[in-house]
# Entry
Amino acid sequence: MDEKAKAVGDGRMIVHGKREKVNGKALVNGKSHSNRNGVNGDKKVRSYGEGDLLHTESGFKVSRAELIRILVQSMKDLGCKRSAESLEKESGVSMEKDSVQEFRDGVENGDWKKVKALLTEMELSKDDRIKAMILIHEEQFLELLEDGKTSEALKILRGEISPHLDDRSRLNSLSSLVMFPTATSMRTAANWPGVKAGSRLKLLNKLQKFLDPSCVVPESRLMTLIDQALRIQIFNCPFHNSKVKTLSLLHDCRCSLGEIPSVCAQTLDDHKDEVWAVSFSNDGLKLASASKDRTIILWDMHSCPEKSPSIIHRLKGHKKPPSFVSWSKTDDLLLSSDNSSSFKVWETKTGILKLAIPSTEKLNSADPDTIMACAWHPDGKHVISGSLTDNKISTWDLTGSCVHVWELQHAMRDMCISSARQSLVLVGTDQSIRTYDCATRTRKKCSIKETSPITSFCLSRDGRYALLSLANPAAIRLWDLVTGEVVHQYDGVKQSRYVVQASFGGSEEMFVVSGSEDSQVYIWHRTSADLLAVLPGHSGTVNCVAWSQNSPHMFVSASDDNTIKVW
# Structure
């Protein structure tokens, strides 16, 4: 999804700026088409590609014929076949060429000779034509096996598939299907539904990905355009913060400031010293807070913010103040670290210490640090830690055994793990950010070099974006880890002496929120970088903020005034 966009005219949108994905998918044209209804051959209609141009209020020009073709497809998808045919007749525009309908009918009827002949007449690249032919021959091969015609199936495999299929493992898998005694066992092994269960329709959807949209209207094209328009409206609505997916097509999305938590509902003062870290569990029902008083408190957030949360456990055991807490995937374990000498793993249900690395913490501050940063491995069964003294990354299992160590070529000071991308992101002492594959431990191409000191950072849920808190001068920058570009900068926060952490927030991470040395909480809109709110209430530096993933209308802030505020 684009980071910048603006509304123009009557709900029409122009998108510009940096490209960003949403929930793991880019906003692009639909790719396939499953409509099975065609145009009657005896209709006298104009060629599908002709027609006048229509002008939008923003000055864009679109084809009248393309719009009609999309409307015809939508009518058929909605079950209004006769209305669709009437529109084709009245407009003189057919949804697609007769040859495309013949191709579709050929696939659905299993007329492979006709399908292959029509495919050779279509405008495809050489590679796409070969890929499409392989898909057709694979379907033909599987159908022959299903019918018990093994010898004919082998002719297709040897004569049509094998010479063109480079994937030897796929070829071996297809060959092994000949050995199955029944059609049912063969279908199960091939993960193929069979003709009666719609295998040909699935093939048709795959084949249409190779066809030019000018010939075949992409699947559910109108709904794709509506989805894009709604997403752009949401991403440009400065206060949108809702998980509700039902939206009206009759008016644009316009939310109020009230969608953003801006009133302090609860103040938690159970810590006896500065609060340095807070983290919501993945289900949003619990909160962990770490304090300079060397304790970690687990809070029950079920009834919050209406009622004050209750304490589940008070975890004691760190010899130095913990400044990092992170929940495991299943929320049954909590990882904590003092970012200096050790990390610990706790059972959240019982509050029992499960693991401590090292087993005995150093007490002499003059001794070299052994643990600089740590994070959960994407598998949720290991912990990755980094050392400042020897530039090594270690992987630990939950029994305390070090299962792997690898040495970096640079010094690091902080790390984050992206489960979505299976990647390890490191901040170096040289203000650089490097990304590594967790499985292969190989470095990915993109690297980032900041000009200002990086005091902390976090990753978006999809792992593509890094939010960096900077000092001297104070700023927050959003970096694209794929392109290596700065997407946005968020200004206003005060930071020069302490570590102040920023994070993403809201239902779809559409906000950036940060504490500040001026005792206030700052909230920006992520895509516009507009400052939406500045919230007073604390009496000391606000060190960090955590936004609940379960409840988009609640976040907490932790401060040097020894309190946590629930907003």
